[in-house]
Specification:
Blueprint (H helix, E strand, L loop, with lengths): L2 E3 H5 L2 H10 L7 H5 L24 H5 L2 E5 L9 E5 L6 E3 L3 H7 L8 H14 L3 H16 L18 H13 L3 H5 L3 H8 L9 E2 L2 E2 L9 H9 L11 H7 L14 E3 L8 H19 L4 H4 L8 H9 L5 H6 L9
Antiparallel strand pairs: 1-7, 2-3, 3-4, 5-6
This protein binds iron/sulfur cluster (SF4).
């Protein structure tokens, strides 16, 4: 599809409907097909994890075990869910899209029961599911290349999609036991310890494993992953986010993307893209500071009147431009 019908992407009301029904799991299979989800430690595609293979992660399949929905205070969307599952944990949070893909497609793992389990284990340990999945995928690729052997992995057969071994590895990482201790600090540090060109397979930005949106599909993600003070975040900006935020409706002099454009335009670095990225970054600083949810912002600045609400709550009389001028990111040291 060389032409993008961006007026659809621009209207986040569609995403609102999907979020309400399925939560972020609405993207589980769609993102793979769109080329948005990284597969097989970023070297695969929908050909490796297509509709048939990824069926257990289908949002309707997951919905069958969802027992109750939950939401943050007063949120009309309510994207969360509690699921009844088999295994050690009888009840667990519905894994987010990011967790499902990091522990699933990124490792070619289509065993949804194992994803429910690992998601719960990692949540209880306070560990990030994206980083954990990215680090496991790194370890699997090292195993595939012979950089890690069964002697290094405490006997685990770390092959693509081997759910049993992936679960065992995650549990070892949580306990910092054996190979788990080597991997528990993420792929960058593990690669420094392993050596042998393993760094080629550690996909990270500033030591942060990348989230489940491929910058080769939307280069705006890559810009934010690499240039934000807190690197590797998918919750700040992209070209798609800019289109959905529709900030030009509130902020003077921001560019309005055309309703139709050729996809290859996305890959041309120009000043307009830089302005769009800076606007996303500043807008999210304002929104995060105000405690607003990114998902709500997707329905567009014309509907979510963040700047008016802030003025009403504080008594300030700032313009949208004033708010964005003062929104500065704070670097996080690594
Ligand atoms: S505030 Fe955001 S994260 Fe919380 S339930 Fe609503 S949409 Fe989901």
């Amino acid at each position: 599809m060389r032409m993008l019908p961006t007026q659809m992407a621009m209207d986040g009301m569609i995403e609102k409907i999907l979020l309400r029904k399925w939560g972020t799991s609405n993207l589980n299979q769609a993102s793979v097909e769109m080329g948005d989800a990284p597969i097989k430690n970023w070297k695969g595609s929908h050909l490796d994890f297509g509709i048939k293979r990824s069926l257990p992660t289908n949002p309707d399949v997951i919905k069958q075990v969802e027992r109750v929905k939950y939401h943050c205070y007063s949120c009309p969307l309510g994207c969360g869910g509690i699921c009844a599952v088999q295994g050690k944990f009888k009840q667990t949070h519905k894994p987010e899209y990011e967790s499902t893909l990091a522990l699933g497609g990124l490792c070619l793992n289509n065993d949804m029961d194992s994803i429910f389990h690992m998601n719960e284990v990692l949540n209880r340990a306070g560990m990030d599911t994206i980083s954990a999945g990215g680090t496991v995928a790194f370890a699997i690729e090292c195993f595939e290349k012979g950089i890690l052997t069964k002697t290094d992995t405490d006997g685990l057969e770390l092959t693509w999609g081997n759910a049993k071994a992936i679960v065992a590895l995650i549990e070892k990482m949580v306990r910092r036991e054996g190979i788990g201790d080597l991997l528990a600090d993420g792929s960058k540090r593990a690669a420094q310890r392993i050596g042998k060109r393993s760094a080629d397979y550690a996909i990270h930005s500033g030591g942060q494993e990348l989230p489940m949106h491929d910058g080769r599909n939307d280069p705006g993600f890559n810009l934010h992953y690499s240039a934000e003070p807190a690197p590797g975040r998918h919750t700040i900006g992209s070209q798609l986010y800019y289109e959905m935020f529709q900030l030009w409706k509130q902020v003077k002099n921001l560019p309005r993307p055309k309703l139709l454009y050729f996809k290859d335009r996305k890959y041309i670095a120009d000043e307009q893209k830089a302005v769009m990225a800076a606007a996303c970054s500043k807008y999210m600083n304002v929104a995060n500071g105000a405690g607003l949810c990114l998902f709500g912002l997707f329905i567009g600045a014309g509907r979510i009147r963040v700047f008016d609400w802030l003025n009403a709550a504080t008594g300030w009389r700032k313009t949208p431009e004033n708010y964005l001028e003062n929104a500065i990111s704070t670097p996080i040291p690594f």
